[in-house]
Batch of 3 targets.
Target 1
Amino acid sequence: MLYRVAGQFKTSYEADYALFPVRQDAWLLAFILLLAFVVFPMTANEFVFRALLIPVLIYSLAALGLNILTGYAGQLSLGTGAFMGVGAYACYKLVTIFPEMNFVIALAISGLFSATVGMAFGLPSLRIKGFYLAIATLAAQFFLVWLFQKWAWLYNYNTSGAIQVPNIDMFGVTVAGPNATAIVQYYFVLAIVCAITFLAINITRGRIGRIWKSVRDMDIAAELVGINLMKAKLMAFFVSSYIVGIAGALFVFLWRGAAEAALFDIPLSFRVLFIAIIGGLGSILGNYLGAILIVALPVILSTVPRAFGLPISPSMVEHLNIMVVGALIITFLIVEPHGLARYWAIIREKLIIWPFPH
Amino acid sequence: MNAHPAIGPALGQPDASDDGIAKGEVLLKVDNVSLSFGGVKAITDISFDVRKGEIRAIIGPNGAGKTSMLNVVNGFYTPQQGTITFRGVERRAMKPHHAVRQGIARTFQNVALFKGMTTLENIMAGRSVHMHRNVFWQMLWHGPALKEEIEHREKVEEIIDFLEIEHIRRTPVGKLPYGLQKRVELGRALAMEPSLLLLDEPMAGMNLEEKEDMSRFIIDVNQQRGTTIALIEHDMGVVMDLSDRVVVLDYGKKIADGPPDEVKNDQAVIDAYLGVAH
């Protein structure tokens, strides 16, 4: 009843191409944006910002990048963590070499670095597919993490071997570094994630998105409708690694504050991949749902039992977390390979005809 | 279902494939093509031509090399010997997406649609070759990219009207029955606006009514859009009724070539299909 689409007519193709052809969807988005931009910042405390809101946004962005490559273009990749690292180290070098550079520009340029590296490691995709390609991208993971450790110039010859985020000001406000406040960092990340999501939605619903999906669904047929496979795959690697690189830079600069090479190792790649799988491959919304679940899960596991007076040790929380995530992955791969996003689609379909069954 | 209802607006256009070749002239010429996979000779020294505006059938028993022949024509296989001349340009090795750009489209024996995409997206994907807005315009969406999208959407909607698949516009093609999938695949090939359309068994696995519908679509495409068609088909009734000329292959060799009536009575063709006493 609330979600009825009857009576919402479209009389032009332009109206048909609106982002939210159903009016209720637009209201829902407006409500979510209101929450994100007004309600959360007003109510959240330091812990909620640092442990929930900021990581959810950053992981969503990383998963969005991976989803473009794996969910849309069908190219499996296990190098996400390393590409995030390229973005982070590139951003670190940029802000230390050019301290007066605007931070947003530094972010945009560091994305270019990870995009180029990602495209180079995407070259094997022209010959191999599926799991074999995943193994080839694993090479990126090992090589790049090794490089982050061994190439001292990357971390400015720090004795610790780690990168420390300096204080970075933008228009008189400290956005990154030890002096930055959580609320500023939250708004900064939120703005960037919203902007990139908007661009990603546009890319995936137009000509290029269709090309990627054609390559994913049947590459031979894609070639025979005139799609240049090489161009399509490399573009997917480029765009994906660009977004992943920016997510990596945000990951270090706006959340962790410091990073060493081991941070970008395989566990990070898998975590982002899990978010994309649980959220739903081939969907933009899914990345957010997956990230909320994966980031919130350990927090829920540690706070809920305590609220009921059950003592739970931090190591217990961690082990429970691993078990639950593992079970979730298996369940989703078997029961709903399209992830949480598909559940939302099903709920929507049911809501449209509710209260009738058909 | 022989009297087909109203013809879609797209068919009002006199000739969608303006390639500078007059009707009846040679559009595609295959000269002495041989193709082998290791020791297996799939095609041996075959020559034939396709004239603009005709429906040309390629028939033959199973394993005769018909599909291999189509794969050679649209650049998927590179023949060891011989040349292909399309629209006056001679070539031997090329990538399939170049063949598409030259104006060759095809459908497949076993449907090769993009299963995760809707009917509309599948046919729009067929227009990729005609769309050019780059990634930056695509990111902004509003403006030139949207304008281009709508322009092409109109052309695609004409094809959807013509093939009478309006009701499945938003259905993922993986969920469609086989007959409709075949129709969507034809739609995707039409969206490329080819000057030569290759159909690999367009009626395989269809019932009589679906076959009649499909035959009508093929004739309409040929007559109203002026698209030249080369098709492989096993249903002899369909082949003899539809085609202007037939080429018959057997064991990778050409055994007959000519109008349907002539081919039908050719002794070599009868032997190939019915077998011959040794």
Target 2
Amino acid sequence: MHRVLGDRRAIVTLIGPALLVYSLVMLVPMVWSLGYSFTKGNTIDGFTGNGLHNFQRLFSDTAAHKALWFSLKYGVAVTVGQVLAGYLLALLYIFFLKRASAVIRTLVFFPVIMPTVAVGLLFQKFFQVAPQTGPMNSLLSTVGVGSVDWFGSPGKAFWVLVIMDIWRSMGFYAVLLFAGLVDIPDEVLESARLDGASGLRLVRHIVLPLSFPVLMSALIFSINGTLKVFDSIVALTNGGPGNATTPLTLYMFQTSFTYSDYGYGSTIALLLTVVCLLVTLAIFRVSRRDLTEG
Amino acid sequence: MALDSPPMMKASGSARRPGTTRALWRRRHPGRIWVKVVIGLLLVVEVYPLLWMFLTSLKSNSDYLNKSTWSLPTSWEWGNYSEAWTTGHIGLYVRNSLLATAPALLLIIVLGTAAGFALQIMVWKGRGLMLIIFLAGIMVPSQMILLPLFTVYFRAGLSGTLWPLILTYTGTGLPLTVFMMATYYRAVPRELFEAATIDGAGILRSFWSISIPMVRNAILTVGLVQFFFIWNDLLIALTFTNNQDLRTIQVGLLNFTGDFGATQYGPLFAAICINVIGTLVIYLFLNQKVMKGLTGGAVKG
């Protein structure tokens, strides 16, 4: 009977077009981009080979190191913030909300699907000092702290970015982790309750270990997304002040399109890809070990 | 990669739980004051920025610059919206976004559903490997493919049209779609298609007239997920729209000065609102599907 489901012509007809488009738009360009990293030039002027020069440059380029460091710093801060905020929200949903739960979940999720550019511009104006005092500074002045020039210093701009991306995506992680909590078997909870566990102890000893797998997948998903951050930063700070909030993704974009250096741009893109892979693998290994120990 | 447990099934499981079991989670004394404070704070943090954005979109420039940021508009300037739409070119940008999104979405769904069927229902050597090849595309950052694509589109004379966007969106949307569709097809028994063959239907025909109606909901979910990815995309749109007339809504909003010269705050906020309203309307009607689809797709890592 498997003859029908193994019909070669049907298989090729069904998967062929998707594979073709995917190969032409993603697989071939990936390899091609790898090739570009050994060249210098751009589409208009043409390319000339220059061996390992781009890689040597990457090693001594302080702007690239700064961008890599920013990407990692940002990735870790936002990942921790997103997943933590999401987990706290999920606990709030499941412990304390009754009928309003679905409504609040839906509401908090909304920023996830808002266009990032819109959120970026909104936060830019929300935190601005001039020409008009935005709500955040206005609030700080009322409390007596005084206005802060959020986008004037690297440290403060970094924190606005982090706050914005947590605001934007905590609803997503809340729903993801909430689904993990709901999957915890009732019997486990019941017996824990009977043994007298409640509140923080219930969370610490029962809920946290049992939701560990879904927490791990949330972490992996989050770090992968935050290392690739582009839209939020372009819309909110455009890498400034100076290049203080420029991650690898934006540095690659500027190198390629502002300075028309496709060769070096491809080398930075390669670095970005390798970083994403390594970080994901590292988390995978750590989570495996923890699972076997626990 | 959690391939052996269908993520969608898990996510949907939460909705079907009867309410009584949830009582186990709850504290004996719910409704303490601090819980209410936390929830109130959460609502303010979520809603106020959006409300502020909307109110500001109705202010005149002098209102925005000279009066307190908390105040209501002195006169409600609905004209800001038409200003943004015409003088700010938001109308043109929305049209471009639609023209790029619709064909890409259609292609993604048709190609992705067929490939998902072939990978999950059909039986052949190497389909595990093929799924991994598609999965690889989810991990890789878009930066890795932009430059060669730029060269190709330029040489092929496609720069200056919306084709680079349509093609790139289709290619980058396929990996996740194929993976999600294959996961959905796991719930459809193979025997169904074997039985259909006995009745004389070819496999391609069964794919079309038996399997498609069965995964209709899944197609809607996947389509929604991809719609938001494409509609909200900035990186690809920024790379391939070097011409102002081709800008999508996101690129256009980022460079929002239009023919105004100096920044006009009312129309700027109106433009942001227009951008948000599109997604808001879809979300109002289909929020449960959107939430399920997006979080379901997340277990892809």
Target 3
Amino acid sequence: MAALNYTQRKKIGRAIFHIVVIFLCFLMTYPLLYMVFSSFKTAQDIFQRPNSLFPQEFTLANFPNGWRGFGGITFTTFFGNSIFVTFFAVVGQIASSAMVAYGFARCNFKGRSIWLAIMIVTMMMPAQILIIPQYIMFNNFGWIDTFLPMIVPGYFGYPFFIFLIYQFMQGIPRDLDEAAFIDGCSKYGIFTKVILPLIKPALITAMIFAIYWKWDDFFSPMIYLSSVKKYTISIALKMFTDPSSVSDWGAAYAMATLSVLPVIIIFFCFQKYLVEGISTTGMKG
Amino acid sequence: MSQSSTSKKSGQSSFSKFLYNENTVGYFFIGLFVIGFLVFTVYPLFMSLYYSMTKYDGLSAPQWIGLKNYIRMFTTDVRYQKSLLTTFIYVFTSVPLRLIFALIVAMMFKRGGRVVAAYRTLFYLPSVIGGSVAVAVIWRQLWGNGGIINKAFNALGLIEGDFSFIATSSTALSTVVILAVWQFGSPMLVFLAGLKDIPASYYEAAEVDGANKWQQFWKITLPCLSPVIFFNLINQMISGFMAFTQAYIVTRGGPNDATNLYVVYLFERSFTSRQMGYGSAMAWVLIIIVGIMTAILFNTQHKWVFYESKGGK
């Protein structure tokens, strides 16, 4: 009898949980649904029924209209620029951060603890604070209106990722290193053959963060890029909200939807891997 | 085991001795960071300190004016003082709310199962794209005049007629705070990873001892999670002080400077008005504020952060 009550209670509890969570999911994703559905609305529909979620009639016209871009420069250019910057910046950030993290986690060099402290302090000091002197410096290098200020600094390690990967390495038993060392593997070999394969989940987590931070980055492109043909997606989208530009909201929604699409696709592809990575290593560790 | 390794190494040349020396290996791996730190952090930091004591438009040579920028900030620049206050309000509301939501949702979804994984993904989705300009553009629409939030408040009878949360000084900051809280996904992910690291045996033992879920949360989950909470708190606090994109696009710092967050104002001064000396001084004050806040958190961590001893087992 008691067992039955218990299972009944559990079932009802679970149903309530699901109802509440589905409602919350709707609230959480409403702005995104609004954006996606509005991109299929006609201009008249957007103006007359701004708060209805579903379009009266589906139209694809907003996409070619939006893609046309500004002053003869299409979104092909803006997407290309964003992909270029994101790809080269992320590769640099992850590769260099993994190396640096290994140095901190597994090498007993002189000054290790001082550099580790410096790294952690640097992690806490965000880039925006140094934007003025960096702007002057990149200006002197002749890097203004190029992608270099957004890419090159990443190749010297990104403290947040160094720390993330470092923490993950701390959880890998040192017995593995020692076993490899006895087998004649050097510290360099241990990094490539033992540690790198094991830190894959941490690298993927870092990569997901890195991709969407770079893709969404608005501050640096706004400061460093001046010609429209160099604009990344985020700056291009902002042009839709400029009072000077003709505001075609349908086109803005369509391009906003397309701009988040790659990030969402990458996220869904790796999310499975990420969750699996976290849970399997959790069991292994 | 040490015997075999020493005998192997002893026959090697001095170059390979150097190559395999702990210091060489260490600096080989962290070398990039050391160079990057000197070039992209230390040098700009000192230049910034110098610029902060000058009048500088970024083009002509800086003119030395001593501490005048700093004095102006705290005496005559009323907009600066308002911006500072607004930023503190923003940080002290958005960060705790964000972490609380992140923890609640992580707790709700910590157990596996396909459906729960789908929920987790949907809750995480806003954070993947929340920092983007796309979302800021949508936010303007939702909270603007006649937007869906306006209509919802009409329906609840809280507001009559058209009302723009974004164009009203008293509510504009809340829209930016809510936009920030909505994106609790990244601390949630970190919490989830932390929750998975808590051994199930702890809970089993507590169950045997008769502890209920509530007690388990306070006695096991929170202490075990405290290093992760600390990590999240520091990160979120700092990124809170640095908030820029949302306030810049949703409200453009307005109305009447109601959402003129620190970095928004710093950007306006440095790049729109090209007062780079003044902007550098503002940046330095921000470094000091964030430094003090971080130091306070680090100094209190021994009271509430629980680290498992790192025994070499």
